[in-house]
Structures are given as structure tokens and as C-alpha cells.
UniProtKB/TrEMBL annotation:
Naturally occurring in which organism (per UniProt): Periweissella fabaria
Listed Pfam families: AA_permease_2
Name of protein: Amino acid permease YhdG
The organism's place on the tree of life at top rank: Bacteria
Keywords: Membrane, Transmembrane, Transmembrane helix, Transport
Name of the gene: yhdG_4
Gene3D superfamilies to which the protein is assigned, alphabetical: Amino acid/polyamine transporter I (1.20.1740.10)
Record InterPro entries: AA/rel_permease1 (IPR002293)
Length: 471
């Protein structure tokens, strides 16, 4: 049983894709920013500030450096094999089929569960906006059962509906997805810039002292605190930038535009995250975010007496998280499409609609599952699963660069990771540090997910793989 059979770059590039190439560099930059800027600024800064204090800005920087080094590795792979599939395809080239399947399985966890998790945060801001204009959704339809102790809830209707709406947009073509994403990203960036301009004047440097009240890593009342644990939390903010590499088959000149899209979007997002966290922890004492855990920006607005900005910020938050959901669902559909094309998932997921030129059926299948997950499941304890799955993919992509530099040094590379082999090694070290900040329950759930994946691989994928059937 050949578990490590590999696909060659030549064989991958021979595939004639039915997907339409329309994306350019700035479309990919906006796609990356759409994936990154959202939950991190509008939700996670509250929990992150309580974990790291004003040092949260360093936590974002650590997470960004991890993603930046990994992003360089993604960029080289994208220039070698500019096709859909992201880390899944790259692992197929470097390590072989079983590892590739496991990474594809992890990416489905990252994108689908990530989109469901963000949809819950989206629902919170959407409900707040409706409340501000006098519209009230019944409490039982605002969250999954058991989400809030003492509050009777059954189903998160807004989360369910937004996922279905975005699924519809993605399913009818990349052009509609691109235009919707670009518009929403532009508006949310404008809201963020407005927030910065209006609040920077209220900074009190005394609020930054002590800058790192819990140090780099410590235990406080049995909970991991400090800059490193906070980096493990806010890493979720950067998840999704790798979806840019999933768009390779729909990108014009992908060997150049994919690396540019990944690196520019990461750079812009990191700068904005650091500026925002410094302003927020400078305007109010970090301990104040305990009362605004899910809507931390509102703490700043109330403190500065700029209530008039609250509605605009809510709109920015809604749009910000909408684009994150959009990019996650887009990445999910392209990963399952690539795996189905290789025979590792049923052909249903790789069926491209002639009218829309998208994997229509697979997009709707995972969109509906994600909508129900956001509507019915309490995702608070599962979000770390997204982090560990993504970090595992980053480790393998980084290791794959080292393997291919050794085994296939003559491959055409439109982009080369600078500083190799040190850069990929540094990327892996950062990933392992962030994985170390996650709790043992997350590891256990991740191992269960991997066990389910191996059951699917040995039960279906191995014998239906194109590499097996084409022998």
C-alpha cells in the first residue's frame, strides 16, 4: 500500500482548469485583507488585552511574524504550482498522498469551522445594530443553546442566514465574489481609519504601564496569561490569508500575483492591528475590556464620549466579519474541489457548473453544513481547533520548502523564499511556540478529528485516488 505516492509538478500543471482566470494583484490583496481584518480587531482584542495587557500589540506582532514567514513559504509553492488546493496541493508534491489528505482534512476544519465561528461574532454585532434602531430579534433565535448561562436560546438565526447568503454569492462566480469582497473591504478600511483618526487624541500613556503585566508567559489563577498565550489567541485573526493561494486557478499570472497578494495583505493587516491595539489599550485601561469582551471597540467609544461612532463601527464590524466568512467559504470550496479532482473526495465536490464556472454543488454542501454549525453549535470551545489545524498546515508547508529545495532543486520558481533554509525553520519554530500555547483539550479534539480523517482516507480516498486508478 503506497501511502506516500506523490504528484509531480508537471502532472499538476497539465490539468486544464475549467475555472475562469479573472483575479489580479489588488483583487488578491483585498481578498487577503478581507480574510484577515475582522474578528481580530472587532472581537479578539478584548480577550487578548485581558490576557496580555497593552503588550497585546506584541502578541499580534508575534502572530504576524509567524504568518509572514509561513506566507513566504506559501508564496514559493504558489509560484511552483499555481493551482487550487493551497497547502493540500503543496503537501501532495512534497510529502505524498496521505499527508496531503490529512492537510486537506485540516484545511476543511480551518475554513468551515472558522467561518461558522466568525458568523457567531457577526451575529452579535448585527443584533446590537438592530437593537440600536429599535428592531428586536427574539432572544431564543440569537444564539445556540447553552451559549449564555441563564439565557434561554435555541438557534442563531442571523449566523445561519449570513452563511447561506455568502454561499449564494460564492456559488454564482468569482466575479461576483470579487466585487462584493472589494466593496466591503474598502468600506471597513474606511471605518477603521475613521476610528483611528477620532480616537488617537485620547491616548493616555499611563494606561500602557505596566506594558506586559503578565510577562511573556505565566499562569494566573490556573490560566495561561501573557504575551505568548495572547498570541495563540489572536493567531485566529490571521487565519484565512492562505486562502489567497487557493485562488491560483482563477488568477492572472499567479506565479507573480499570488506572492504579492499574500505578502501585501499580511503587511497592511499587521500594521493596522498594531495601531488599533496600541490606541485601544492607550485610551482605556486594559482591565476595562472585561465589561466589553465581545465588543471591545465600544469600550473606547464610550470612554471618549463618541457614541455617534458606534453605529459606524458596528457597520464596519459587520462588513469586516462578512468578508472573513466569504473568504473562508471560498477557500473551503476550492480545497474540496481540488481533493475531489484528485479522487480523494467524491466527484460531487469537484463538479463545476457550466453556467457559473464554479464548484456549485460542493460550495452549497459545505455552506449548508457551516450554516447549521453556526446556528446550532456552541463554538466557544472549538475555535482553538481552527488554530491548531492551521498551524499544522503551516508547519508542513514550511517543511515542504526544505524538502523540495533538497529533492527538486531545479524546479522553476517564480518566487524564492529569501534566507532559506533558515526562514522555513523559523516559521516552524514560531508555529510550534503558538501550538504550545493551546490547551490539552484542543490537542485531544484535534487527534479525534485526525482519526476521523484517517478513517475516510483508508475507507474511501486511497482506493479512489487518481494515482491509484491511473496505474
Amino acid at each position: 500500500m503506497d501511502l506516500m505516492r506523490k504528484k509531480s509538478v508537471d502532472d499538476i500543471l497539465k490539468n486544464q482548469s475549467p475555472l475562469k482566470r479573472t483575479l489580479r494583484t489588488w483583487d488578491l490583496v483585498f481578498l487577503g485583507i478581507g480574510a484577515i481584518i475582522g474578528t481580530g480587531i472587532f472581537v479578539l482584542t478584548g480577550k487578548g488585552a485581558l490576557t496580555a495587557g497593552p503588550g497585546l500589540s506584541l502578541s499580534f506582532l508575534i502572530a504576524a511574524i509567524c504568518c509572514g514567514f509561513a506566507g513566504l513559504c506559501y508564496a514559493e509553492f504558489a509560484s511552483i504550482a499555481p493551482v487550487s488546493g493551497s497547502a493540500y496541493t503543496y503537501s501532495y508534491i512534497a510529502f505524498g498522498e496521505m499527508i496531503a489528505f490529512i492537510i486537506g482534512w485540516d484545511l476543511m476544519l480551518e475554513y468551515a469551522l472558522g467561518a461558522a465561528t466568525v458568523s457567531v461574532g457577526w451575529s452579535g454585532y448585527f443584533n446590537s445594530l438592530l437593537e440600536s434602531i429599535g428592531i428586536h430579534i427574539p432572544t431564543v433565535l440569537t444564539a445556540a443553546a447553552g451559549t449564555t448561562p441563564g439565557v434561554h436560546t435555541i438557534f442563531n438565526l442571523p449566523a445561519f442566514c449570513i452563511v447561506l447568503l455568502i454561499t449564494a454569492i460564492i456559488s454564482i462566480g468569482i466575479n461576483s465574489t470579487k466585487h462584493v469582497n472589494d466593496t466591503m473591504v474598502f468600506i471597513k478600511l474606511a471605518v477603521i481609519v475613521l476610528f483611528i483618526v477620532c480616537t488617537v487624541w485620547f491616548i493616555k500613556p499611563a494606561n500602557w504601564h505596566p506594558f506586559a503585566p503578565f510577562g511573556a508567559y505565566t499562569f494566573h489563577h490556573g490560566t495561561a496569561m501573557g504575551i505568548i498565550p495572547a498570541a495563540s489567541i489572536v493567531f485566529f485573526s490571521f487565519i484565512g490569508f492562505d486562502a489567497v493561494s487557493s485562488s491560483s486557478e482563477e488568477t492572472i499570472n499567479p506565479s507573480k500575483t499570488i506572492p504579492r497578494g499574500i505578502l501585501i495583505s499580511l503587511a497592511v493587516s499587521t500594521v493596522l492591528y498594531i495601531i488599533m491595539t496600541l490606541i485601544m489599550t492607550g485610551v482605556v485601561k486594559y482591565t476595562a475590556f472585561a465589561n466589553y469582551l465581545n465588543e471591545p471597540i465600544l469600550a473606547v467609544l464610550h470612554h471618549t464620549g463618541q457614541g455617534w461612532l458606534a453605529a459606524l463601527v458596528s457597520v464596519g464590524a459587520i462588513l469586516g466579519m462578512t468578508t472573513v466568512i466569504l473568504v473562508d467559504l471560498y477557500g473551503q470550496s476550492r480545497i474540496s474541489y481540488s481533493m475531489a479532482r484528485d479522487g480523494l473526495l467524491p466527484k460531487f465536490f469537484g463538479d463545476v457548473n457550466e453556467k457559473y464556472q464554479t464548484p456549485f454543488k460542493g460550495t452549497w454542501f459545505f455552506g449548508i453544513l457551516t450554516a447549521f454549525a453556526g446556528g446550532f453549535i456552541n463554538l466557544n470551545i472549538l475555535s482553538d481547533l481552527v488554530n491548531i489545524g492551521t498551524l499544522s498546515a503551516f508547519v508542513l508547508v514550511s517543511a515542504g520548502i526544505l524538502v523540495l529545495r533538497k529533492t527538486q532543486p531545479d524546479l522553476h520558481r517564480g518566487f524564492r523564499v529569501p534566507g532559506a533554509p533558515f526562514t522555513p525553520i523559523i516559521a516552524m519554530v514560531f508555529c510550534f511556540v503558538l501550538i504550545g500555547g493551546l490547551n490539552w483539550q484542543t490537542w485531544l479534539r484535534f487527534l479525534i478529528w485526525l482519526a476521523l480523517g484517517l478513517a475516510v482516507y483508508f475507507g474511501y480516498s486511497h482506493r479512489n485516488s487518481q494515482l491509484h486508478t491511473n496505474k
